[in-house]
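Can anyone check this?
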Amino acid sequence: KSRLEAPRLTPILPTLALRIWAVLTHKVNWDVTDRRKRPKILLFLFLFGLWNLLLVRYFGNGYLLYLFIFYQVWLTGFGLLSLWYKLSGHTGAAVLTTYFFIQWIGPLAWPLVFLIPIIGWARILCHEHTLGQVVVGTFYSIVIIILMQLVYPL
């Protein structure tokens, strides 16, 4: 097998393992609405993220490595903030993903920006978050994007 086989499995295995582990040991739903249960699950995600970061480093793709470092920084801050406040990870992830699509594809990806308020509104309608939590999740990602551009520009 070539060195390219491992990256195909890396996003699937951590997600599957996390889901099985969380449901069997913590009796949580996918969104982990109980904020007190988030730190262990986010730590689990963080460790798998580090593993993926090492794999990406091994395979030598510079942009992908940058993307994974960016994600690790975002996830670390999200996990720490989750200890005190329930911010919307879905909205924050939408901002981050939209940013990377715009960086990668260019102006054609700008319509994706309209998905961010739609995702935020959906989170509010489903009673998973308040407006404040959605706004904090959005601005958290914007702050991380700005800080990463200052510290580690593309």
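Reply from J.R.: I decoded it. The helical segments are 5-9, 12-26, 38-59, 62-82, 89-105, 115-125, 131-151.
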